Amino acid sequence: MNALEPASNSVPRANAQSDAGGPAKPVRGARLQASGLRVSYDGVLALSDVSIVVEPGRIVALVGGNGNGKSTTLRAIAGLNRLDDGALVFDGQPIHTLPAHLRVPLGMSLVPEGRRLFPRHTVRRNLELGAYTRDDKDEVADSIAKMLDTFPILRERADQLAGTMSGGEQQMLAIARGLMAKPRLLMLDEPSWGIAPKFVTKVLDVIQQVNATGVSILLVEQNLHKALGIAHHGYVIQTGRIVMQGDAQALLHDEQVKKIYLGL
Ligand SMILES: Nc1ncnc2c1ncn2[C@@H]1O[C@H](COP(=O)(O)OP(=O)(O)O)[C@@H](O)[C@H]1O
Ligand SMILES: [Mg+2]
Fold first, then answer.
1. DSSP codes of every residue in 141-201
2. Ligand 1 test: best mutation among 71, 80, 236, most atoms within 8 Å of CB?
3. CB 216 less than 6 A from any atom of ligand 1
4. Are 56 and 30 a contacting pair, CB within 8 Å?
5. N or C of the chain: less Cβ packing under 10 Å?
6. Which atom of ligand 1 lies nearest, measured to the CA of 189?
């Protein structure tokens, strides 16, 4: 583990306080503590020892090259991969024995790798499906209206089939669908993957806007500049282990991180 200082007592950066794009109700961001996660696929170790903390209201980036265990980490937190070892504590509550569908109502939502929308359903229907674990069904229509306000591009396309939209538009929908669960921790798996550069900036802006309402964010990216550029704290994962962590800006300028990325 590199000796970069943890960012827990540093001053929040200005961009985390930026305009939320309207009078959004403040959310009490959740705290996530993942300790010593170990996960294997058919006996082959994918994560050997992953420990990550997301402090309430923070954006935490988990960066690393392809195949290093980023998605496995998010899936383990969401309950989609079984832990061989380790612990997950969400706002003080141990959750690692809960099935995935019981973790969502506690306030965690995963925007998965590759978006995983329902391409033959409309935008509106995809949003509705994002609320499947909510017990306040009467309020779902209000939430959809709010999402269409927040994402004007989705309002234009509300009755269009999701699969007919561009990659960037689909990513916006995937994030909006993730927000339909009313998360206090939003996890995003490579939201910039496969989308046009102008949409990458929009997606990063949206993540910051969501964070500005109070929601804690765990952002997984291969693109370290993009992810660390908007994060408060960062972790670097390599072959299933956290090899560095620290203040996001410090990591961004750290020579060791560059070497890891270049495979030196
Ligand atoms: N469903 C799976 N079955 C078997 N091996 C897998 C599966 N998913 C991922 N792996 C392996 O686990 C390791 C970590 O993968 P992954 O978490 O997807 O990495 P990343 O998201 O960083 O690209 C890789 O070696 C990958 O081949
Ligand atoms: Mg992945």
1. HHHHHHHHHH-HHHHHTTTSBGGGS-HHHHHHHHHHHHHTT--SEEEEE-TTTTS-HHHHH
2. 71
3. no
4. yes
5. C
6. 21
3-state secondary structure 205-262: HHHHHHHHCCCEEEEEECCHHHHHHHCCEEEEEECCEEEEEEEHHHHHCCHHHHHHHH
Please give the C-alpha separations between residue 207 and each of 56, 60, 132, in angstroms, as whole numbers: 15, 11, 22
> Domain limits of the chain?
30-116+183-262
Predicted confidence (pLDDT) per residue in 80-98, tens digit: 999 999 999 999 999 999 9
Q: What does the pLDDT read at residue 242? A: 96
Ligand 1 pocket, residue 94 CB under 6 Å: no
- Helix, coil or strand: residue 81: coil
Closest by CA to 4, choosing from 225, 230, 261, 252, is 252
Structural fold of domain 30-116+183-262: Rossmann fold (3.40.50)
CA dist., res. 50 & res. 241, Å (int) = 5
pLDDT at 98: 96
pLDDT tens by residue, 95-117: 999 999 999 999 999 999 988 99
Residue 70 Cβ < 6 Å to ligand 1: yes
